[in-house]
Q: What sequence folds into this?
């Protein structure tokens, strides 16, 4: 940890934190769930690599805010996760900046909705590339270093749609089911190496993107935003409340800690009972 702090021009005193000295990549981390995860892991001491859609000014602001709040180094990488080589380069640059990656949170994802017969093939390809293939490419790259160090944590942000299906979401459902399957294979292959791999499967989470969807659907259907939430978005979520980004982030942080050393290959639902039907 001293190496990180000195290289970033930081100085921190106080008690040790659970992830001091660890290096974490969090993809899709410039907003929503990913940013909450990055904030939580930084608060536990990890050096953070952010990745996502962001202009240079906003990226600098995010890095500075996390660094100032948690006194741990944070950098931004604009890798295009739809390209295999770019995913590998993201990890390589992270290693050069901070050292071997010990925590990988595969969170980046995109969505498109439409019936199968009208689903644009280019949208299918893009969703599979970012939501599934990028998880494979990043995992493949970080595993050798994790094996050498005898420690690693890989957390894949899947979805309730990694466990069940919904109409009009063919690519997303296929990708997220694939993520859950890849999680199980990764866990089995690394079970004796001090590495764990788990998936978290959120239902609807209140993010800025979801808030935009609520407003748009209310306007389109001429109903209140509360009605959209209860009868459309949360129709299958028994608690009738959104999960929060903090709930997802804290679950992921727990999976990175020592108490979760025997949890691997799991798909953990954070969905208000949706998949209990």
A:
């Amino acid at each position: 940890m001293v190496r990180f702090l000195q290289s970033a021009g930081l100085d921190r005193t106080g008690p040790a934190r659970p992830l001091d000295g660890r290096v974490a990549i969090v993809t899709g981390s410039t907003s929503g769930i990913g940013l909450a995860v990055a904030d939580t892991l930084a608060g536990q001491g990890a050096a953070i690599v952010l990745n996502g859609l962001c202009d240079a000014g906003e990226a600098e602001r995010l890095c500075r805010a996390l660094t100032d709040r948690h006194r741990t180094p944070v950098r931004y990488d604009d890798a295009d996760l739809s390209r295999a080589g770019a995913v590998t380069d993201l990890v390589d640059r992270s290693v050069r900046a901070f050292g071997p990656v010990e925590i990988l949170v595969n969170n980046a994802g995109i969505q498109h909705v439409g019936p199968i017969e009208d689903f644009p093939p280019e949208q299918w390809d893009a969703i599979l590339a970012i939501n599934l293939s990028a998880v494979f490419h990043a995992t493949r790259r970080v595993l050798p270093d994790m094996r050498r160090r005898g420690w690693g944590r890989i957390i894949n942000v899947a979805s309730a749609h990694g466990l069940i299906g919904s109409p009009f979401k063919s690519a997303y459902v296929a990708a997220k089911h694939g993520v859950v399957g890849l999680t199980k294979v990764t866990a089995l292959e690394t079970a004796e190496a001090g590495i764990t791999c788990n998936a978290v499967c959120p239902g609807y989470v209140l993010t800025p993107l979801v808030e935009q969807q609520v407003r748009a659907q209310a306007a389109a259907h001429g109903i209140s935003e509360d009605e959209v939430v209860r009868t459309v978005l949360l129709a299958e979520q028994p608690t009738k409340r959104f999960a929060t980004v903090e709930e997802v982030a804290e679950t992921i942080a727990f999976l990175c800690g020592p108490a979760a050393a025997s949890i691997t290959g799991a798909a953990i639902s954070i969905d208000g009972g949706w998949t209990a039907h």
Remarks:
- The longest helix spans residues 121-149.
- Residues 205-242 form one domain.
- The chain has two domains: 2-203+244-268, 205-242.
